């Protein structure tokens, strides 16, 4: 049961990420806006699930599946490296600090 | 632009596979207390493979396969949400040193992995193919 929930959530998350990234990412920009957006949203939602102490099937579907599928480290890393040291560092800082802030905000909301 | 439905389906199918692979890795090798090694290894491996993807004839010859394997499998396999939440939890728990080592160590290792992978393939990856 758990792998099916993970697959379902992961499939939906990856499809949504692909659509958003295709629409909003632009190679010429310092920040890949679509990938950054899905990474921040996914970090917020996972922080929220953690703050609300969600476990079991719901965590498998929404946390491991959806948030994991929605967010990506691989395309973020390739995009950052492609942008070179200076622009890549700016993009990386926006992603890492932004995702930490989003997860913290989500956790705080989930606690309430 | 909005991607064609067939390509979205490829991303979804690959993402489902990648997410289950990531979940399986967590089941087989759960990280003990402290440094989140499982997520670290997943993200570094996935970043390296994405940089190497253009070397794969299957991905070069077919847009559908490129999307299924890149944004699909590798995008679903790697995760920034777990990375952020693990970093947040380490910081909140007072493990500042471990948190910084994890957050910066993952970033540096993935960046190096991508550079090595790109050097090995010697090809530019069109951004829309990234997972």
Task: Give an overview of the whole structure.
The complex is a heterodimer of chains A (112) and B (131). By secondary structure, chain A is mostly helical. Chain A has one domain (2-111). Chain A contains five helices and no strands. Chain A has helices at residues 2-24, 33-51, 56-70, 74-82, 84-111. In chain A, α1 (2-24) packs parallel to α3 and α2 (33-51) packs antiparallel against α3. The mean pLDDT of chain B is 93. Chain B has one domain (5-25, 36-130). In chain B, α1 packs parallel to α4 (63-77), α2 (37-52) runs antiparallel to α4 (63-77) and α2 packs parallel to α6. Chain B has helices spanning 5-28, 37-52, 57-61, 63-77, 81-92, 96-121. With 131 residues, chain B is mostly helical. Chain B has six helices and no strands. The longest helix of chain B is centred in the last third of the chain and has 26 residues, at 96-121. The chains are: A mainly alpha (112), B mainly alpha (131).
**Poorly predicted residue ranges of chain B:** none
Structural class of chain A: mainly alpha
The low-confidence runs of chain A, each spanning 5 or more residues with pLDDT under 50, are none
Number of E strands of chain A: 0
Strand content of chain B: under 5%
**Most extensive chain interface and residues per partner:** A-B, 60 and 62 residues
Report the portion of residues of chain A in β strands: under 5%
3D shape of chain B:
globular
Query: Could you describe the largest sheet of chain A, including whether it forms a barrel?
Result: none
- How much is the radius of gyration of chain A in Å? 14 Å
Provide the number of structural domains of chain B: 1
- DSSP summary: helix tally of chain A: 5
Which series of helices and strands of chain B comes N to C? HHHHHH
Roughly what is the average pLDDT of chain A, rounded to an integer?
A: 97
**Main sheet of chain B, how many strands, which sense, barrel?**
none
């Amino acid at each position: 049961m758990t792998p099916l929930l993970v697959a379902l959530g992961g499939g939906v998350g990856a499809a949504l990420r692909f659509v958003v990234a295709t629409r909003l990412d632009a190679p010429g920009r310092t920040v890949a806006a679509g990938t950054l957006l899905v990474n921040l949203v996914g970090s917020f939602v996972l922080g929220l699930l953690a703050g609300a102490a969600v476990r079991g099937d719901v965590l498998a579907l929404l946390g491991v599946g959806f948030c994991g599928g929605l967010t990506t480290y691989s395309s973020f890393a390739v995009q950052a490296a492609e942008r070179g040291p200076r622009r890549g560092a700016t993009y990386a800082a926006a992603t890492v600090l932004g995702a930490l802030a989003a997860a913290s905000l989500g956790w705080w909301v989930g606690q309430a | 632009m909005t991607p064609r439905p067939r390509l979205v389906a490829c991303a979804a199918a690959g993402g489902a596979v990648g997410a289950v692979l990531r979940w399986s890795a967590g089941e087989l090798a759960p990280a003990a207390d402290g440094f989140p090694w499982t997520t670290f290894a997943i993200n570094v491996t996935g970043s390296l493979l994405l940089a190497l993807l253009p070397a794969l004839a299957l991905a070069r010859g077919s847009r559908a396969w490129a999307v299924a394997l890149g944004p699909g499998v590798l995008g679903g396999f790697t995760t920034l949400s777990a990375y952020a939440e693990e970093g947040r939890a380490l910081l909140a728990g007072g493990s500042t040193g471990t948190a910084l080592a994890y957050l910066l160590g993952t970033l540096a290792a993935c960046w190096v992995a991508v550079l090595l992978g790109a050097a090995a393939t010697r090809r530019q990856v069109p951004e829309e193919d990234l997972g």
